[in-house]
Amino acid sequence: MSAAGTVRLSVNGEPVAVPAGSSVAAAVASVAAARFRRSVRGEPRAPLCGMGVCFECRVRIDDTPHQRACMTPARDGMQVSTDD
Amino acid sequence: MSHYDLIVVGAGIVGASCADEAATAGLRVAIVEPGPIGGGATACGMGHLVAMDDDPAELALARYSLRRWEDHVDLAEAEFSRCGTLWVARNETEAEGIAQRVARLEASGGEAEAVDAQALYRLEPALAPGLCGGMLVPREAVVYPPRVALHLVRRALQRGATLYAGRAVRRLGRATVTLDDGTVLAGPALVATGCALPELLPQLPLRPRKGHLLITERYPGLLHHQVLELGYASSAHGTAGSSVAFNVQPRPTGQILIGSSREFDVTDPAVSGPMLQRMLQRAFDFMPALRGLRAIRAWTGFRPATPDGRPYLGAVPDSTDLWVAAGHEGLGVTTALGSARLMLDLLQGRPPAIDPAPYAPARALA
Amino acid sequence: MTERYDVLVVGAGPAGLAAARAAASHGARVGLLDAQARHGGQVWRHDVLHGTPRPARKAFDLLVRTRGHVEWLPQHQVISADHRTLLVETPRAAIRLSCGSMVLATGARELLLPFPGWTLPGVTGAGGIQALAKQGWPVHGKRVVVAGSGPLLLAAAATLRRHGARVLGIYEQAPAAAVAAFAMQLWRWPARAVQAALLRARLAGIPYRCGSFVRMAHGRDALCGVDVDDPRGPLRIPCDLLAVGYGLVPNVELASMLGCALDHTRGHPCVQVDALLRTSVAGVYAAGESCGIAGLAAARIEGGMAGHAAAGFPAAATALLPSRQRARRFADLLAQHFALDARTRTLAGADTIICRCEDVTLAALDGFTDARAAKLATRCGMGACQGRICGTALAELDRFPHGGIRPPLFPARLATLATGDPSTP
Fold first, then answer.
1. What is the SS3 assignment for B13?
2. C145 pLDDT above the threshold of 90
3. Which residues, 6 or more positions from B341, have their beta carbon under 8 angstroms from its beta carbon?
4. Which of C424, C80, C360, C36 is nearest to B295 (CA)?
5. How many CA within 13 A on the CB side of residue C79?
6. Average pLDDT, stretch B242-266?
7. Which of B4, B77, B227, C25 would bridge B187 by S-S if both were Cys, CB 3.0 to 4.6 A apart?
8. C416 SS3 class
């Protein structure tokens, strides 16, 4: 954990700092709230349930796609990308 | 009593194809299906259109049918994807058999080519190192069978067929069919009930052969061909109690469908953890990158297996106006359209384009 | 590898924490697992700005004191279950957990009903935005409309306000008379009355409208406003976020996979239990929302009961029976006064997406009376959520009941599903 209880990670290449204990979803929302993934038809989608059930918040984390952003605690150095 | 020219019992891919073929030929057709259209083995399989070359009769039927599948290339419901089939050799022994298989497929009118190891990894970079080349069958494809079955039934209905949905056949009589609600239909019956065949025609031996499949999340670009191990045929056509073989398929959605397993003498449809483990371990041997992919569903199905592996296509022996098209085991989707045409030729007394003798149901009673 | 426990507790919300504590108090070796990274479940979720709620901290501290007996297993997602063995996936590994007895404290999820625009980014569940905000989702200064049904709307609005959001209004579908009648009954549960008063104070100045619901959400790539049907006339409200939930639905998937009988008499299925919280499967107990939505108090009591019973001390469980019955009566009150208006089930239009994983519209599902037939023909329910959202909504819309359950319970790495063979790491 970085100084002052802040976690630093990157979302789509952009550096983001969030309070320790935040989810990856929170980190993504702080730069790209409008879109976590593209639906099958290409519509933008973002979290719905906030508790790991709906799978709308799927993002790529450190090269592993289809991770639930709302269930994953943000950690220093994570590379997150949306829109898979 | 309603009279029909043909009463098709069962609306899996085979029954649906027969109904469509008959309705297109102008016959008054009834279709009886107790469950969802294409809800049996049709819904559970991979939808791989593939010619297996180890039995000449099976190959002839597959080739005949594959040509008819070409009419469905642009059908949205078919989700037709010409990914080709890539057979991989684990060792020199398997690789040595390739030339003969290429020759057999080409002799049947198909295209096939041997590929060396270098070409193999160019075609599928995710394959495990150390494989000894393989065989590419470029024009084979995958489809989505339950929607095709639904399409064929709907087309038959548009052409005048009648669907008895949610109804099962209680009894087959002499040119009559009695449904479970007491309705009696008159006319010749064609039984295409797959694994349920013994309920109506117990004289024709048939055993369910359980299989497992699993599908992943979307990983576009990871897999390009339907990839099978060359040893697949010995698993598919062997009679071992249980076996697994490497068989993976790229769905048009980018999902990867993973098989395969075979088990006789199991009737519980539940997904078996140990069988899934065996099947996946086999798949990892050939494609280690699969380990980290996410599975979203696993399911099972039962293939209708006859003792010699060939379907029953033709008149039921010692009966009148009773026909059967069932027992296609794992090749029902590939051979459904050809089977249906063959059945209609037999029904209408025309000589079929391929020799029907190897599929004659009478062989089971000999 | 297989790790063995006397008692496994699945879910670390109020019921699970109480169950683990009760079982450990008898000396049982307890494994307490949850898919989330922190204990507390939904109602006691840790808040990045405001910390862990005091009762949750206290409940967890009690567990720590029985250290040596309770093993806390965070980020453990159950993938499949067979008899009393669970296949579990963690962020890096897969393990098998087996036990002498098991307590299912799997809680509930929100009932999310489809309406035009519900797939727009910015539309979340009411409990959904609460969970997201507590985990750092930026809501400060955002204009939020809260809608749907039940007391959860007040809790969500309070959390949002605490995080600096501008809550524009709370739109409760239940009619004013029903909500008033519910409030009148609260004196029977003094703790709840205090809690309700506190919520009211925190929500001072926020319009609370009854008999109204969100008919449509607007926006192109993200939400920009909502249309509300209100008894006084239609409203159009520009906003950044819409938090809408129609109540809770028990999570019964694991119970179902274990073969536990479900109770279908109260709408969405819940786990069937007897007075000692035994399910129909020997050695498997269930507690809290998974046995029917009854709220926090009932969950804590039932967790304790199930924990005692699972550890082999049914007398200790029986002693809690009267308080359980009392707490459960609150559930009946909730169900009675916040029953859904038929209009909330007719909001989706022909082109409204029902299955969000596979983008299947309501019109595509016309004519299907069976989840499997619909799935085969349209892909509805074939996606990653495995029908949890669309299947539940379609059941509520009275189209067809939710389909069956098969492993994996949640999407899982193939390596996890291949675990079991000793050669697999």
1. helix
2. yes
3. B21, B64, B68, B352, B353
4. C80
5. 30
6. 96
7. B4
8. helix
Assign C332 a pLDDT band (cuts: 50, 70, 90).
Answer: confident
Give Cβ neighbours of residue C255 (< 8 Å, ≥ 6 apart): C104, C106, C262, C271, C279, C284, C286, C290
Q: Do A66 and B292 touch (CB under 8 A)?
A: no
Q: Is B294 on the interface with A (CB under 8 A)?
A: yes
pLDDT of residue B354: 97
The minimum CA-CA distance between A77 and chain C, rounded to whole Å, is: 17
The sheet carrying B113-115 orders its strands as B113-115, B134-137, B85-88, B226-229, B242-250, B255-263, B207-218, B294-305, C412-413
Chains that touch A (3 or more CB pairs under 8 A): B, C
Mind listing the pLDDT tens digit for each residue in C182-209? 888 877 777 777 677 767 778 889 999 9
CA dist., res. C92 & res. B335, Å (int): 44
Q: What phi and psi, each to the nearest 5 degrees, are found at residue B73?
A: -60, -40
Instruction: List pLDDT tens digits, range A16-74.
Output: 999 999 999 999 999 866 679 999 999 999 999 999 999 999 999 999 999 999 999 99
Min distance B170 CA to chain A CA atoms (Å):
43
**DSSP, res B281:** H
Instruction: Tell me the ipTM for this assembly.
Output: 0.95
Question: Residue C266 in contact with residue C294, Cβ under 8 Å?
Answer: no
What is the least distance, in Å, from the CA of B215 to any CA of chain A?
Answer: 14
C176, C211 Cβ separation under 8 angstroms: yes
- Backbone phi, psi, residue B262, to 5°: -140, 130
Distance of CA A44 to the CA centre of its chain: 14
3-state DSSP assignment of residue C171: strand
Nearest Cα residue to A82 out of A18, A11, A9: A11
Dihedral, C98, C99, C104, C109 alpha carbons, nearest 10: -20
| Amino acid B240: pLDDT | 72
Rounded to an integer, the average pLDDT of B234-263 is: 90
Task: Report chain C residues touching chain A, CB-CB < 8 A.
Answer: 35-37, 42, 46, 48-49, 75, 91, 109-110, 112, 119, 121-125, 127-132, 135-138, 221-222, 356-359, 383-385, 388-389, 410-411
Put simply, the answer to whether C421 touches B277 (Cβ < 8 Å) is yes
C303 — phi, psi (to 5°)? -60, -45
Picking from C94, C66, C89, C78, the residue whose alpha carbon sits closest to that of residue C11 is: C78
State both tokens at A52.
């790991």
Query: Which amino acid is residue B304, in one-letter code?
Result: P
Q: Is B303 helix (H, G, I), strand (E, B) or coil?
A: strand
**What DSSP element (H or E) covers C94?**
strand C94-104
The residue among B130, B83, B88 whose CA lies nearest residue B245 is: B88
Q: Which residues contact A33 (CB under 8 A, 6 or more apart)?
A: A46, C121, C122, C138, C222
Q: What is the pLDDT of residue C336?
A: 86
Q: Which two tokens stand for residue B341?
A: 């045409």
C392: enclosing H helix or E strand: helix C388-396
Residue among B271, B291, B292 whose CB faces C407 most closely: B271
Residue B113 has pLDDT above 90, yes or no: yes
Q: What is the pLDDT of residues B304-362, one digit of tens each?
A: 999 999 999 999 999 999 999 999 999 999 999 999 999 999 999 999 999 999 999 99
Between the CA of residue B342 and those of B9, B160, B359, C140, what are the distances in Å? Answer: 17, 21, 10, 70
For range C400-421, the mean pLDDT: 89
Residue with tokens 């949610």: B166
